[in-house]
Amino acid sequence: MSRLTSDRVAAAPSNGVRSSPSPYVDFDRASWSRLGESIALPLTADELEQIRSLGDEVDLAEVREVYLPLSRLLNLHVQEGGRLYRAYRTFLGHQPARTPFVIGIAGSVSVGKSTTARLLRTLLARWPHHPRVELITTDGFLHPNAELERRGLMTRKGFPESYDRRALLRFVTEVKGGKDEVRAPVYSHLTYDIVPDRTAAVRRPDILLLEGLNVLQPAPPSREGRGSSLAVSDFIDFSVYVDALAEDVRSWYIDRFLRLRETAFRDPASYFRRYADLDTPAAIRRAEQLWDEINGPNLRHNIAPTRGRATLVLTKGRDHAVTRIRLRKL
Length: 330
Description:
Layout: E1 17-18, E2 24-28, H1 29-33, H2 45-51, H3 60-92, E3 101-107, H4 113-124, E4 133-137, H5 145-151, H6 165-176, E5 182-188, E6 193-202, E7 207-211, E8 238-243, H7 246-262, H8 280-303, E9 312-316, E10 322-328
Helix pairs in contact: 3-4, 7-8
């Protein structure tokens, strides 16, 4: 397994970079890729095949040109956080052990955020000084189907109200509080439900990636009317939003539904087994309905409005390839 070793980031060329008057610096793909030219690619084609999600066409060229520079940028943030921690420790005379650096990965269903999260987990673990990188998805904090049924929320699964927000906030608070072990529920995409009596343990990693639809949501107003309460996003050190035109994401969702109809949906244990025998026109109609009634509105009303809260935005074109990167200015 190769590791990343370069400590140098090339200066961004003026061509292809726009920085004013937006609060973001805008890079086209070519200018962004130059920021990682001096870094060896620590990933093989076989490893990438295991990482990418169904329907996501990311290849090694995109890893080199987009995700490798991003991993270097994140590595810089983690290193600078370590320097600030040491300065605090000197200033205060005493400071508890440093807590994990939390990276949030947000975006729509079918946009490729899961692949982005897994890629970054692999790349970040191969930089020196922070080999312990863990990934948790917020799917595990969805209410179980029985509870969603009780609340009349099964057709709003993935909307903010379908999550156990208190449990998710407690999880992130304990991670950032430096607790030795924090456990998260586990979700099965096969059964479309929480897996009973199964949890994933997070044991003080150097970096925790938290991936989910709504990780950048602001805090809802408190019930007492005394301002806002805490939100998961308050504990995120760096955030990435994976973006694309809604009509492109809709198309990717339908394509993925058709592929799953030929694969995972055929498993007898699959929640979606009833869709496996649909003919192609009927399957397309059902996928369109699911998008138009559930995933599209959730993207429009809940997910896309959080894009402006991200530290960095990866924008994809119709072919699923990243075409533009927007980085918030310091």
